[in-house]
Amino acid sequence: MLKADAVARLLEAGQRRAARIVSRMPAPGGVMDPSYVDALGIRVHCELLRLSEELQFGRRVEALISPLIAGLRKAGPETIRVVDVGCGLGYVLRSLAAAGRLGPDVQLVGADLNLALIDRARDLAAQEGLDCQFICGDAFRPQAAIEDPARTVVISSGLMHHVPEQELPGFFASQADLAVAAFAHWDIAPCLWSTVGAWVFHQARMREPVSRHDGVVSARRAHSAAALQAAALAGAPGYSIQVAEAPRWQPRALDVLRPVVGVLA
Amino acid sequence: MAAARPGRAATGGGGAGLIAVVAASLALLGLVDGACAGFRSSVGRTGLIRHRTSDRRAARRGAGLAAVLLTPAVLVACGGALADHSQAEVFRRAGELMLEVYAPYGLVVIVALVAYATLGWRERYLASAAILGPLTLLRPAIAILGAGLAVGVTRDLAVALSVILAVLAVLTVEPVADRLWYGRRAVYRRERTSGSAQSP
């Protein structure tokens, strides 16, 4: 991509700070340097991983999906699969694999569109001897990662705020159409506290200007519980949908990240 | 005698024991802070799940770096204190004033770290989200506040020099650790030596 085009698009979207960050990136011949962008993406995701650790993301996911997995286990002895779409460096799956509490009959598969992140996720899993797979794939086309939908739980973390609201029903439909057993997608609950918290945490923990900028922008563009519920009901009508959220002005620190959960009825 | 000198805050009686306690407390806080700074420099770099060994190494490095960087401040304080008993009392008072700011902050951080290390995941999350993260952001302001109080009350040149050197030392532990071990250029230098370097 031409750097000038990237900067222009960001300015059009009102993201002047992001445009300044991009304008400082190397671009030989005016074209964004792909190896620089890949390396930056990996650095940013490594920093995000630190945030995920402090937010106890792996444990949150485990606490929620364990009963879903137990239910699937009762229904039969076949392998159960947890598929993380938009997995990035695969922190959630690797931490689940490292903890080893889901059980030996659970396969962990991550999919992301970014090949550089998937390659690094594979390297990291191999380095630590963690039993999880990573494939290059589109979060809107998860079938590449799903073998037996009836025994698959699809998850994601921090993905939905990247999806425009009008496309959310399609996101849920991509899983419902396969008739996966359940899905659980975590994202920031938008409110003053999560925006302030995102700013505090990204200033305190992130080194890359991109990370610091994106942290606050992500909190601001996250979807409300009502929007997620409506989209999930529209895209996955055969599912029982739940989204828990506190009133906007009441801080509930534990619920600053909350899932939209759908279970096939 | 101290009160008769213009521009000098009155200092009460102390004793070598009290001076030692104040100095040791500040030194301990400086080392713990340095350990935390070393840890912060190292985390979020590799993407690995299991990193406790490298965390401990980073904390040791940070504490060691803090000890080295704080040496000039300590030498100024020791030099002043040993040269003149009344100067020792001024340094003691400055130390007490700094502790009035740093000790509560340090105590809250240490309690939160203990909670993070020992409690369940929900408590760990709260310790990080509500305490450790925000206090990391406030740390430079706290460091400067304690120093400002010490300098403002004692109005002593030697104290000012020692305190400024100390604040500069604690605030540079993390950037120096980045340069020496954990930043992109340090990693690139290490990898270049081992033959596996990618451009920083």
Explained architecture:
The complex is a heterodimer of chains A (265) and B (200). Chain A is an alpha/beta fold and 265 residues long. Chain A has ten helices and seven strands. Chain A has a seven-stranded mixed sheet with strand order 3-2-1-4-5-7-6, with helices on both faces. In chain A, helix 7 links the parallel strand 4 (152-157) and strand 5. Chain A starts with a helix and ends with a strand. By secondary structure, chain B is mainly α. The interface between A and B is medium-sized, with 37 and 24 residues.
Task: List the defining traits of the structure above.
heterodimer, A: 265 residues, alpha/beta, 7-stranded mixed beta sheet, 10 helices, 48% helix, B: 200 residues, mainly alpha, 6 helices, globular, disordered N terminus
Compact summary:
The complex is a heterodimer of chains A (265) and B (200). Chain A is of the alpha/beta class. Chain A has helices spanning 3-12, 16-23, 34-54, 57-75, 91-99, 115-127, 168-176, 192-205, 209-221, 225-235, and strands spanning 80-85, 106-112, 133-136, 152-157, 182-188, 239-243, 257-264.
Low-confidence stretches of chain A: none
Strand-and-helix sequence of chain B, N→C? HHHHHH
What structural class results from the helix and strand content of chain A? Answer: alpha/beta
- Strand fraction of chain B: under 5%
Q: What shape does the CA trace of chain A take? A: globular
